[in-house]
Amino acid sequence: MVVVVNSYEPWSAKRAAEIIAAHAGCEGPALPILHAIQAAFGFVPEAAEPMIAEALNLSRAEVHGVVTFYHDFRRKPAGRHVLKLCRAEACQSMGAEALASRAEQALGIRFGETTADGRVTLEPIYCLGLCATAPSAMLDGRIIGRLDDARLDRLVAEAQR
Questions:
Q1: Which one of 25, 44, 99, 138 is most buried, by most CB atoms within 10 A?
Q2: pTM above 0.85, yes or no
């Protein structure tokens, strides 16, 4: 089993400017820039918003609106591992709510939080496209279907290492 450990750069306005410049010429560059910023730093720092706005000739409010509209963008740094549990209807119909409660209890955190030791961030995701194998989850980009108590417990244990 391959375990991916998230390794993020410390915030740097210079590095953010490089990322923005590299993506500014794309069609519809706001989302690619925001994704690249988050991939580099583990979240979208508030300080990046005016930089992006200026580069794309948008208001800071427009950039902030994009960041806060999409659930995938974080406002705080993520833990070493990110566990995402699907909260969409198909997964809910197959017991995802009980699994979500189990994960929160096992980790001692709620959705959108990171464990005190910085190892695990628990996030909701709204459809992984695995409706036929619901409920589903994603750990550090690895997708898992047919989630049950035992499988969730193994994922939590893996993330806590």
A1: 44
A2: no
